Every structure is written in C-alpha cells, then in structure tokens.
User: Which sequence fits this backbone?
C-alpha cells in the first residue's frame, strides 16, 4: 500500500514540476477583441471597479476613472496591462486586474442552411459546427462554401472546406447546388 501511495506522489510531483516550468501550459491567448465582444473586468478587492462591458461599434468601453478605453484589436492581456497601468498610482498602489471574454461577437451564416442568421462564436468553431448550429444544410445545398473574414480589408470571399476554422465576425455562405 505504501508503495502505491509513494508512486502516486512521485507521479504528481513529476507532473507538477513539468507544469511549473511552463511545459504543457496553454499559450497566452492571441484572440483580438472586436466590436460586440462582451468582456468582464475584475479588479481585486475593488467591487466598484469590476464590471462587464460590451465593446461599442468603435471598439471602446467606458471605465471608471479612466474614461473611454480603446480595446479594438487588443488581446485581453494587453487590455489588462493598459487598465492596470491606468489605475496604478493615483487610484491604486498595486492593482490586480483580470480581463476575460464572457461572450464573443457573432459570426453569420447564410445561403442554403435551414436557419440562417447570426450566432454567438465559440472557440474551436469550424464550418461544419457552424452549419450544425444553423440547423444543417438544405436539400439544395452545394459543397461550395465561402467565408469572408471580418478583418480582411478587401472582403474577399474564400472557398473553404468543412474543417475550416471560423473566427468571430466571419460571414459564411453555403451556395446553392443546381443539381
């Protein structure tokens, strides 16, 4: 019995040691905030500074003491650093700020799906999952699917497959088959 417990402790210590050196930890999110994202800002021990806010069409939020903050295109880590820096000094000595995404902005799917429209984005979303959220293909659906990325300044449609990864704000169109 003691041998089994000893082995479990060794396995735990090896796993903990690996994690504490940064191996196996998830990468810092490179998700860029955009208009329509709902974020939660938590300032440790400062309930009056903790809040949820939806990014405006200009990609800004209004934050107590700091006013309007431009968050469009920033990661949550960059926004945390900006708010921390803004609160440090005149307002708080050592603010601890955490920013998280509560609800991602919508993606849109149209064409030959049963329920076209806008749907909340979910991390790991593929075209196949997006079609499932939209009720599946209609009888006239083609295998031709195009996507326009929100951040593409040319708004060029790209042909994609079912395993293609969708991003928030993307517009998918399932084209009609003629046969």
Assistant:
């Amino acid at each position: 019995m003691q041998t089994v417990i000893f082995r479990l402790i060794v396995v735990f210590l090896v796993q903990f040691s690996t994690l504490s050196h940064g191996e196996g930890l998830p990468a810092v999110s490179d998700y860029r905030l955009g208009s329509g994202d709902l974020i939660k800002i938590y300032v440790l021990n400062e309930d009056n500074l903790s809040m949820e806010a939806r990014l405006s069409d200009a990609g800004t939020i209004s934050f107590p003491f700091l006013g309007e903050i431009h968050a469009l295109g920033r990661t949550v880590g960059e926004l945390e650093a900006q708010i921390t820096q803004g609160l440090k000094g005149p307002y708080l000595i050592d603010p601890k700020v955490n920013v998280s995404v509560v609800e991602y902005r919508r993606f849109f799917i149209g064409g030959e799906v049963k329920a076209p429209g806008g749907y909340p984005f979910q991390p790991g979303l593929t075209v196949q999952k997006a079609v499932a959220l939209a009720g599946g293909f209609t009888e006239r659906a083609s295998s031709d699917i195009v996507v326009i990325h929100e951040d593409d300044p040319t708004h060029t449609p790209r042909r994609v497959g079912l395993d293609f990864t969708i991003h928030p704000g993307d517009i998918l169109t399932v084209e009609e088959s003629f046969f």
About this structure: The first helix runs from residue 2 to 20.
